[in-house]
Design goal:
Blueprint lengths: L4 E3 L7 H5 L5 E4 L5 H7 L6 E3 L10 H16 L4 E2 L12 H13 L3
Parallel strand pairs: 1-2, 2-3, 3-4
Helix pairs in contact: 3-4
Length: 109
């Protein structure tokens, strides 16, 4: 059986219900910190995501800085899968998406 990931956009208010959904991993959007999301979910689930997709519309330096901030926050959790807090926007510059991926790949916690 494959692990399941559940993502509910803007659902921090429903964390208690989401924690009981049966998923192995919970997707976190950018509206709350990873620490707050983990705490609200009882600290029992690996989290995925959390970078605001709009951050990828900024300059490359900002993309790297925001990605590093997310990765640093995620490193404090029991487990974190780096990702956006929702889908990539169509107008996202390719170089910015590359900067995001390269920053994730080179991160050392």
């Amino acid at each position: 059986m494959f692990p399941t990931i559940y993502f509910a956009l803007d659902a921090a208010h429903a964390a208690a219900a989401v924690a009981k959904c049966g998923a192995d991993v919970i997707g976190a959007d950018w509206r709350s910190s990873l620490a707050d999301a983990s705490r609200a979910l009882g600290g029992k689930h690996p989290l995925q995501g959390n970078l605001d997709p709009c951050a990828l519309l900024a300059d490359v330096a900002t993309v790297r800085r925001r990605t590093l901030a997310m990765l640093t926050d995620g490193a404090a959790l029991p487990s974190h899968i780096a990702n956006l807090g929702h889908g990539i926007l169509p107008e996202t510059p390719v170089d910015n998406a590359i900067a995001f991926v390269e920053t994730v790949k080179s991160f050392k916690s």
